[in-house]
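REVIEWER CHECKLIST
Item 1: Sequence provided? yes
Item 2: Single chain? yes
Item 3: Sequence as submitted:
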Amino acid sequence: MSETAADVVVIGSGQAGVPFASRMAEAGKKVVLIERGALGGTCVNVGCTPTKTMVASARAAHVARTAARLGVHAGEVKVDFPAVVARKDRIVAEWRSGVESGLEKVKVVRGQARFVAPGVVEAGGDRFRGTTTVINVGCRPVVPKVPGLDGVPFLTNRTIMELKQLPSHLVVMGGGYIGCEFAQMFRRFGAPVTIVDRGEHLLSREDPEVSVEIEKVFAAEGISLVQKVAVEGVAKDGGGVVVKLSGGKEVRGSHLLVAVGRRPNTDDLGCEAAGIALDDQGFIQADDHYRTGAPGVYAVGDCIGGPQFTHTSWDDHRLLAKFLETGDGRGRAGRHVPSSVFTDPQVAGVGMTEKEAKKKGVAYELASMPFSSIARATEADEPAGVLRVLMDPKTERILGAHIVGADAGELIHIFVTLMQAGATARAIVDMQAVHPTFAEGVQSVVMKLRPFST
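Item 4: Structure as written out by the authors:
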């Protein structure tokens, strides 16, 4: 088998792999990119692009269905589900084509990549030795060890978007961000939906005050919540499924979506042969500058654990490229990573939650305000939600901010910028906010903090 030398070998075409490969190729490097699936990774093919495309269709149906609250009567609302799916497929194909066209200077190899020796990767019937090798293999859905699950045609976040007909009753196992986004989406398309979750609240990493807001919205939209229960078994039920829960409860549905987490795609990567260490969950162990235990081999994106977000993976490529180009640069530990759940209203956050601050013994000032207190929220009839801000009482720097509300995913960037710059909350107090905007609420809640409320 032949062996090809390259300056850079990139394994995986996700949101770190593609821009990193392109950047290195533009710098005159000989770059090989290996991909066994569709170009673009999770985000383009089964993540951000398709889900947010379908979320947009679901929101359009909901707005039309509830327009009477604004004095607008749209008549009967019909969802053409096959047309929704076709639109999603078309947009995914456009993005995937864009990824491909941006790799003109990169040698793309299709096939499974596997390390066969330190620094040597086998794929597509050839072997490649890179001076620098970057792993960006991402994650896939966790399939829990639930009795009977392997005997039913369950869905994951990938396969649920391949359905051609609307479920007559969708049961969602898991109340995290993936489960919540799909639950609301399919409810708005017209399907009855039940969420089953072992936690006391949906989005269990958030403070209860945040989770309660989205739970109230879900209940108002007719989504059934079965919480604080464990799934003890799954079985076929005619043409559907029955989910057996602790306490003798059962939930029956036509389809079951399993959304209980994600695991790294490192099982078949041959990491042992390359001297790459994994943790007990299979995530690649990498330092602050993405270096693995193997010389010249780096790992980025979801496969190294931590926040599994597209924007985090993209930022990884930027930090790694800077480190390789200059030999220094900030590491990944020095950044503030925001998140957003694209439910309606959105749930966004950055930094510590209150429960995290309490657990770590961090002193804080807390300000909280209903989203309905914002003038724009009343005018647009988007009152659901809450704004919560934690501040260090000594330095007046923001420790964390969490928002449930319209455009929360946009508003959170005010806090991200402030925190990344190391500025104090006083900058928000002193700014002029346009009226009437949702951003006024950011200023209003900060002004409730004790140093600024007098």
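Item 5: Key structural point noted by reviewer: The chain has a mean pLDDT of 97.
Item 6: Recommendation: ____
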